[in-house]
Specification:
The structure holds two protein chains of two kinds. Chain A is globular. Chain A has one domain (4-118, 128-374, 388-432): Formate dehydrogenase/DMSO reductase fold, CATH 1.20.1630.10. By secondary structure, chain A is an all-alpha fold. Helix content of chain A is 73%, strand content 0%. In chain B, strands 1, 2, 3, 6, 12, 13, 14, 16 and 17 form a nine-stranded mixed beta sheet that branches. In chain B, strands 5-4-7-8 form a four-stranded antiparallel beta sheet, with no helix packed on it. In chain B, strands 9, 10, 11 and 15 form a four-stranded antiparallel beta sheet that branches. Chain B has four helices and 17 strands. The chains are: A mainly alpha, B alpha+beta.
Chain lengths: 433, 300
């Protein structure tokens, strides 16, 4: 039987053991290598990348789309499930919001990395035109970042109060941070009422903004006339894929936090079972949009799209294409459709596959189209006709992924990874019933 | 027992070694495909001269162009002193080489020339040769009143230009993406004076901004003279000025062209969302005020 005291003890942020420290060091090393590569890119220009006249978007933009996609999980777990009164998702809400904030932060960073002259970024604000999809993206990413941050912060207020009570006796150094962020929270009924209402408003607001952020990201592609991007299906296709990869990431994070913090009582096998079912449903929805995206154009096989489509199905990109579909959709469905597959370890493996496959899927959305222009490539060096990222691009891309995981890790060290107050409230409600 | 096993292992090792050696030998004796090499001479406007080589091979039962073949081009004879240059075939199996000014002295020696192209042997193909024997020639183009065109074809004999009879020639007008015949007659043949006469029958053909068109007289793929073209600008077209309709057809092309109601909707959505966020920031301030000086369990 869980008591209030036991819940608080279990859920308080804990110091990292040696595994945690090694993990942080590894992530830091990746980040530093990425930073060095970026400094090199800044000093020598984008020529250090493999991007050229045709493949002018490479793995930076693939990473950007991936980050934006993964950030959407905040709206799914926190908002959609909260608004539909799905109580079992409570232990997962903070994990989802932390992933969302970290991912959207690095989505903003990686887009600047892709710029040849990042010092001109401010021009987007001073000379930006509302008619440009790039400006839509800047507006919507900024908005989504603040909403996600608020949705992470407001439910934390009650937990800050709890931690401050505990830390006062333990004299924890994080006390100052908690005090700065939440010392005004006194569990006053008016405060609780305002806070709950604010969270409710945020949960409603974040859904259209979340849909907008990924729809606008898809429109960055779909508003251009190119084989593979010239699609009316793109908004829905992107959102379906985003929900899938976000849910896959939550499965992965659930397993890791459950193991690292010994949260078996809070993140139970039932949570994996339910999240597994959600992932299966989302994978099927994404499969449906993939069929829409490829079957109709392949049926017509227009001359302008032929090279692009055949490149994916049987050509240069076929290995990556079928690998991405298998790992992001088919294998996770096969694993998670069985009850045994929704146990923690298989569900974790399925989640990893979804995340890895989804990254490659983003790469396939960006690059093959650019290498199949409507007018044939002429009078260009052979290297312009192909794209394989340079080591600087890999280092920066890996560094940004490590950076995202580092932020999640830091949040996990500083904040309770499962909402303490909400868990206590649910436990007390359960006892009353 | 052990000794017997050792012998067995030796035999097996020897057999495997022999198989590997034989397979390596047989692999190295793969039958090479036959490369077909063609060479053409091109002269544009009696000025720009170049050679074009193309490669083909029968692969999987049908002829296909061969890319990546290294070719050397020569004038007169295959000799390093007569090397014009080297080129590699592209994905269409074609390699072009402009005749360099350094070949001028050899070129001027005779009214007839021989060009040669030699391919380097590769793993798939043996090295092959091809040549083109050229008689130097030229086309002169002129116009007469009533939109008539005359083109004269002549060849060089002992430093004199002699008109040639019976050469097939096309008279066309240059368009974007291809040339258009100036009349219903697709090909003309030169008379005893080496002349063809063509009527320009195309009315209201868009020209440049002042109505100029470019007419072309050309000889294609002739076994003796190669490929020659000569151009001349004539004021027989309609003057045309490009008017861009981009701004009218695109909703978002320019700030001034996007409808006001659409801009208002966009700005209103942004304002509404940020209004909500601003309201929530105010709520946090309210929470702070409510918490200031509050002691749990005591009423204010």
């Amino acid at each position: 039987m869980l008591t209030r005291q036991k819940i608080i003890e279990d859920l308080l942020p804990k110091k990292f053991g040696w595994k945690g420290k090694v993990w942080v060091i590894v992530l830091l090393i990746f980040c530093v290598i990425g930073l060095v590569a970026y400094i090199l890119q800044l000093s020598k220009g984008l020529v250090v990348t493999s991007m050229r006249d045709y493949a002018s978007w490479g793995i930076y933009i693939s990473n950007f789309v991936f980050f934006v996609a993964i950030s959407l999980v905040g709206s799914l777990i926190t908002a959609v499930l909260r608004l539909t009164n799905v109580r079992w998702s409570t232990p997962l809400t903070r994990i989802a919001e932390i992933i969302a904030v970290s991912a959207i932060t690095f989505a903003s960073i990686i887009i600047v990395v892709d710029m040849g002259r990042p010092e001109r970024f401010y021009n987007l604000f001073t000379h930006g035109r509302l008619q440009s999809p790039i400006v839509w993206d800047v507006i919507v990413i900024t908005t989504y970042f603040f909403i996600s941050l608020l949705l992470l912060y407001l439910p934390l207020l009650a937990d800050f109060n709890i931690m401050l009570q505990i830390k006062k006796s333990t004299g924890n150094r994080l006390n100052k941070l908690y005090s700065y962020l939440g010392s005004f929270w006194k569990n006053k009924p008016e405060q609780i009422k305002i806070n709950n209402r604010s969270i409710q408003i945020l949960s409603i607001t974040i859904i259209p903004v979340a849909f907008a952020i990924h729809t606008v990201t898809s429109w960055l592609f779909a508003t251009t006339y190119r084989p593979g991007w010239d699609s009316t299906n793109f908004g829905a296709y992107f959102i379906a894929g985003a929900f899938l990869v976000g849910s896959g990431a939550v499965l992965v994070a659930m397993y890791i936090f459950r193991r690292a913090y010994k949260l078996d009582k809070y993140i139970t096998t039932d949570h994996f079972d339910r999240m597994g079912k959600i992932v299966v449903m989302l994978a099927l929805v994404y499969l449906y949009f993939n069929v829409n995206e490829f079957l109709a154009p392949a049926f017509k096989m227009k001359k302008t799209e032929e090279g692009y489509l055949l490149g994916l199905f049987t050509g240069d990109y076929s290995k990556v294409f079928w690998f991405a579909l298998s790992t992001a959709i088919f294998i996770p469905i096969l694993i998670l459709v069985n009850k045994k597959g929704r146990r923690p370890l298989p569900a974790f493996i399925a989640g990893c596959l979804v995340v890895i496959g989804s990254w490659f899927k983003r790469y396939l959305i960006v690059t093959p189209t650019l290498l199949n222009p409507l007018l044939p490539m002429r009078d260009v060096p052979d290297s312009y006709r192909h794209y394989f990222p340079s080591w600087q691009e890999w280092a920066i891309a890996m560094g940004s992924l490590a950076g995202m995981m580092l932020i999640i890790t830091i949040f996990a060290r500083l904040l309770p990874i499962i909402p303490i107050q909400e868990t206590i409230d649910e436990m007390e409600e359960h006892e009353k019933d | 027992m052990k000794w017997k096993n050792m012998r067995k292992i030796k035999y097996i090792a020897l057999t495997i070694g022999l198989i590997l050696f034989l397979s390596e030998v047989s692999l190295s004796q793969v039958v090479k495909n036959k490369l077909i090499l063609g060479l053409g001479y091109y002269n544009n406007n009696n000025r720009l001269q170049y050679l074009k080589a193309n490669t083909k091979a029968k692969l999987n039962g049908k002829f296909q162009q061969v890319a990546g073949i290294h070719l050397s081009f020569y004038i007169t004879v295959e000799d390093p002193a007569n090397l014009l240059g080297r080129a590699v075939t592209n994905e269409k199996g074609v390699a072009n080489l402009f005749i360099p000014p350094s070949a001028k002295s050899v070129w001027n020696k005779s009214p007839k020339q021989t060009f040669l192209v030699v391919s380097e042997a590769t793993k798939e193909y043996d090295g092959v040769h091809s040549n083109f024997d050229l008689t130097k020639s030229r086309i002169q183009i002129d116009t007469l009143p009533d939109r008539k065109i005359t083109a004269t074809f002549s060849e060089l004999r002992d430093s004199a230009w002699i008109p040639v009879k019976g050469v097939d020639m096309k008279v066309t007008v240059k368009r974007l993406g291809g040339d258009l015949n100036v009349s219903e007659t697709p090909t003309y043949t030169t008379d005893s004076l080496g002349v063809v006469n063509a009527d320009f029958k195309l009315d209201k053909l868009p020209g440049d901004s002042i109505g100029n068109l470019v007419i072309i007289a050309e000889v294609d793929d002739n076994d003796i003279y190669g490929n020659l073209t000569t151009e001349r600008s004539v004021p027989w077209g309609e003057s045309s000025k490009y008017v861009s309709t981009f701004n009218q057809r695109s909703l978002f092309a320019r700030r001034g062209w996007s409808p006001l109601w659409l801009e208002w909707i966009a700005y209103s959505i942004i304002a509404a969302v940020w209004g909500v966020l601003f309201y929530l920031f105010l709520q946090i301030r309210k929470l702070k005020r409510l918490g200031a000086g509050y002691v749990a369990g005591k009423s204010e």
